[in-house]
Amino acid sequence: EKLLYDIICEIYTDEYEIAEKAAFFKINITRFLLLVIETDGEEEPGKRMTQYDKHLYRFGIANTFEEVFSDLYAIFFVSLDDRHTCFIIQPLDDTGDKEETIDAKCTYLQQIVQNCFGFTISVAVSTPGEKIMELPAKLQECMKAMEHKCYIGNNAIIFHKDLDTFFKYEEYTSLEMHRKLLLEGIKAGNEKTVRTKLDDLYRVIGSFTSVNMEVLLNFFKSTILAINSLRLSVMEADGCKRAES
Fold this sequence. Notes:
α8 (173-188) packs antiparallel against α9 (191-207) and α8 (173-188) runs parallel beside α10. The protein has 245 residues and is an alpha+beta fold. It contains ten helices and five strands; from the N terminus they run ααβαββαβααβαααα.
């Protein structure tokens, strides 16, 4: 796992050295897909994971993933950080190459995780790779795909190959920037700033020549979720102050 982490994160970049180390550990990566799983739990209002929880859930997700995918794929997994786990899957037959097979298994994985652990996960899927040196590029594909989760909501399955078609209507990056500014105004308790940022947000949306209404709806839902999370944090802090006094 440490070797694969160093390759994926480009700590090792020398192709000869990588081939030598991979051979030593009997790692043979040819035709593969990279999947990155991100836990959504910390984004839910009132949901806070301890470091122990994160450690436990990370291995729980890895074990569940292996149970769901091992019938059709050879699997390597790499823990990237507290919220992201990377899986290299290599199809054992032609069935594993089908997008609908991967989508169905990811959906089933999400259901198990939610039922067993009480939070949701999002999954990003790279385009196919052919050799171990392509791992860093495939990680970048997954992380780019995961960036779009803020537009489609939690519990998402995002294939990198679909990004160009799914988001062909408009570039929504500016929405995220305005949302951050709006949330900063709310955190500061500055009503004037909040009103200004709301006006800016509606102005940007009004400038779109065409709008993906489903994406826009999920953008507003996730924004409201973030605002509610701030409200709960303020209420909790206020309650602690009252208890101390």
